[in-house]
Design a protein that fits this description.
mainly beta; six-stranded mixed beta sheet; three-stranded antiparallel beta sheet; 1 helix; 15 strands
Length: 193
Amino acid sequence: MQPGVGYRFSSSSSGITLDIGDPWPTNDAVATHPLKIINVSINAGGNVIYQVVSGTINNLVPQLDDYISSTSVLLDRVTAGVANPPTAELTSSNYDATTKTSYITLRSGPDATTNVFPSSDVTSARYPQVIGGNVSPVSPDTDTAGFLVIGTITVDNVTTPTTFTVSQNITGSLWADRIKLASITARYYYARI
């Protein structure tokens, strides 16, 4: 007996073993990178849920609204020594009604006291946060917040989705810079690291 396409076998004094399992890892396992939108599914409530692979912006791990605990949680959360990443939920208000797309956006701003960008105060609304919104980006850049779309989730129906498509814009952690001159609105620049 010789191995063929789609299976492997081994022979020993204990007998013969035929393995018909996939010998190659799935594309998701191979293509994981920081800030990748993963584990997208439809929950029991009929809403799309998703997670984001832990990554950084200027060495800070962003937060994500965990719909189970209703709190903002760092992407690299660990519970009892085991990775426990937060899961976000998209409701009908998170989608553009025409394109049926939610823009998964990284929002970050300068510290309100020191003006250091991005804010390292995890209790501040200016700390880096991944959010889903119905416009691209979720909001125009301001002096207090910059927005970068890391990917999109498009559904077939915004009120009762049954299928979805995920597109990824960012494929790694980021380094960002904020430039503010006089009365001109701050500008934000990003580079993958």
